[in-house]
Amino acid sequence: MAHKKEALKEGCYGDEVRDHILEFAENGGYEAIPEDERETWFTRFKFWGLFHQRDGQESYFMMRLTNASGILEPDQLRTIGEVARDYATGPVANPEFGNGWIDLTTRQSVQLHWLKLEDVPEIWEKLESVGVHSRSAGGDTMRNISGCPLHGKAEEFVEAGPLLERFEEELRKDDALANMPRKFNISASGCTVGCAQDSINDIGFEPATKEIEGEEVRGFNVRVGGGLGGRQPRAATPLDIFVRPENAYEVGRGFVELYHDYGDRQNRSKNRARFFAEDWGMEKIRETLQDEYVEFEMHTAGEDFRGEYTYNAGKPVEAGQHDHVGVGDQKDGQHYVGLSVPVGRLPAEDAIELADLADEYGSGEVRLTRRQNPVIVDVADDDLESLLAEPLLSEYPAEPSPFERGAMACTGTEFCSIALTETKGRMARMLRWFNENVELPDDVGKIKIHYSGCTADCGQAMTADIGLQGMRARKDGEMVEAFDIGVGGGVGEDPSFIDWVQQRVPADEAPGAIRNLLQAYAAHCDDGQTFRQWVDATGTEQLVEFCEPQETDFEAPYMADAKQSWYPFAEGESAPTPTAEESAAPSDD
């Protein structure tokens, strides 16, 4: 029997949902939706990037935008900022971030919160006038296509831009493929840094080379079945296929169609492509692709560059690029400047000012990364010093602290109904506290701390130096917010996921536990040894002892129960721990 969400999608999904959203908006907004039909329509709305916010925030919506591989063309960021300023304001200001801001996501896109349904037509009109849209940004469909944010600007072994553009224009816009069994993530990168993180995508294209008929050919190897969530992460498995750039789209489309046709539509906790790939196996997938979906004869895999991957790979800073923060060289002789936006939250006025700086010092184009940060591109030598001296870059520096540089956080209980803890505000405060209370060796340039509000792992905690996942615990007879703490995750040549060293640590004791762990690292690491290398060389039992929970002077306004602090849904009981199905089925990422 198909899952109930399949019935909710039946008869109306994809492009036709837009007309219904417009109709509801014009007839009174949220109140125009029949109460007994709201669950159905909210499921359908997600295809157009429109998510009803959590219980207690009735009538407010989040809108996720889509911009393949993180490219925001001139005027697009400014318009997004103006929309956030004019429409994305809630009834209660966030105590850390105020009101009216944008969230940068881990899939190189943007989310807007506190929107009213009746404003959606105007919002779409403003965004679409500059080429920004929300189609296929949520729901059971192909999500934002991720790639190297500097493709076309930095050096690439094989050009990925044309492939990314075809995926966006021809595959994601095909309404026949709108209704997938579950959300589906695609990545493609032509650089040898590994920044598209093919390891954690449903299908990933990585640069490779292969000798074919005596000729050394540049193209892509293909991996499938990667993903996080539900404490069941999977690294994508090599499909043993090499494709020329001109054939890559057909293979990507073929696997999307294969999953669309054969994917499980019954058990949503086990129907992501990573489980599908595991059940079928690489040989059956490859043979079915060749027999039913791909018209040319596929080659076996070529030689990849995974040994050179440095992006979030746990290697020393001098080994190569591990993120896109800082000043870097473009292949045309100009520069890019990546800014650090801790936890990815950018006030509307700052987003507008960032767009102004991109116009003044660059081409006006801004690129977004998979680490929730923006990059100004096309900066000339003569303008670089002046850009770095701008006041905004004191707030979002190109040379941040190791903690700020490595931080990511999901939405948390602020808006997500399955999250167990507040995330972004707490993480922002912890970063400041770590800056003041933890001293790292001079040669440590980054500590990647990722925070997810629950086991769905939208914050990618499983791939961090230090991964935090929201939990609940009892302390002094009361239920409080808590963390599970893990160490040693990352992507690279051989992707690894964190090992848990402490579980259900009360929120007021978790910063102390992390500080104790980092102080142990500073005291015991060898010169030049990264945190991940130190973790690998240190026994689990010793790491558990180092990561000792401890009460400290750290303070936040939501230590006990974020769902009963400052939010407009402060009344009533907190939500229970999600079911197994919910834990493995995040609402977004």
From TrEMBL:
Residues 139-294, 405-548 form the Nitrite/sulphite reductase 4Fe-4S domain. One of its GO terms (molecular function) is heme binding. Residues 57-129, 329-391 form the Nitrite/Sulfite reductase ferredoxin-like domain. Residues 573-589 have a biased composition (Low complexity). PANTHER family: FERREDOXIN--NITRITE REDUCTASE, CHLOROPLASTIC (PTHR32439:SF0). This is Ferredoxin--nitrite reductase. Keywords: 4Fe-4S, Heme, Iron, Iron-sulfur, Metal-binding, Oxidoreductase. It comes from the Archaea. The lineage of its organism: Archaea, Methanobacteriati, Methanobacteriota, Stenosarchaea group, Halobacteria. InterPro entries: NIR_SIR_4Fe-4S, NiRdtase/SiRdtase_haem-b_fer, Nit/Sulf_reduc_fer-like_dom_sf, NO2/SO3_Rdtase_4Fe4S_dom, NO2/SO3_Rdtase_4Fe4S_sf, NO2/SO3_Rdtase_FeS/sirohaem_BS. It comes from Natrinema ejinorense. Belongs to the nitrite and sulfite reductase 4Fe-4S domain family. Residues 568-589 are annotated as: Disordered.
